[in-house]
Amino acid sequence: MSGPVRPVVNRDNAYFFEGTRQRELRIQQCNACGALRHPPGPACPDCGALDRGHVVAKGEGTVFSWIVHHAPQVPGKQLPLVIALVDLDEGVRMVAEVTGVPPEGPDGLLIGDRLAVDWNVVDDELTLPIWRRVEGGAR
């Protein structure tokens, strides 16, 4: 099997991937009005400013929705794959690969489950966030 699909890194998201290499989950923040946003972009959707920075997220959130990806095959991934839309505690949503949960059955992921970020170190240049269910979280 080939390696994972590598993200396209550009000036809008480079800070995010620099952070993941340091095991930090970074969220873009408007330096003008303070609004947080994800995915990142060049201009603030709230005030239109181009002055952007970032904050380091706590790395915890709640499952808003989820799916089980069965096909097509994703390079570097074993299917089925659980993918969730996570409401981060900081107030933004992020698409997340969830590991450590069965794709189906009573122990599978539920809306409202608490997740915490972990790290998939692909190589020296790429570390990706992956998420795990927090033990003792609401079920």
Give a written overview of the molecule.
- The chain folds into 2 domains: 9-56, no CATH class; 58-134, OB fold (Dihydrolipoamide Acetyltransferase, E2P) (Beta Barrel), CATH 2.40.50.
- It contains 1 helix and 8 strands, in the order αββββββββ.
- It has one helix spanning 14-21; strands at residues 26-30, 36-37, 52-56, 60-69, 81-88, 93-99, 114-121, 127-133.
- The strands form 2 sheets. A 5-stranded mixed β-barrel has the order 4-5-6-8-7.
- A hairpin with a 4-residue loop joins strand 5 and strand 6.
- The mean pLDDT is 93.
Roughly what fraction of the amino acids lie in strands? 35-45%
Look at the helices and sheets and give the structural class.
mainly beta
Distance between the termini: 35 Å
CATH architecture of the largest domain: Beta Barrel
Label the overall shape.
globular
Low-confidence stretches: none
Instruction: Please provide the ordered H/E string of secondary-structure elements.
Output: HEEEEEEEE
Sheet having the most strands: 5 strands, mixed, barrel
Tally the structural domains.
Answer: 2
Per DSSP, the total helix count is 1
Strand order, sheet with most strands: 4-5-6-8-7
Report the mean per-residue pLDDT as an integer.
93
Determine the CATH topology of the largest domain: OB fold (Dihydrolipoamide Acetyltransferase, E2P)
Helical percentage: under 10%
Count of strand segments: 8
Radius of gyration: 16 Å
| CATH class value of the largest domain | Mainly Beta
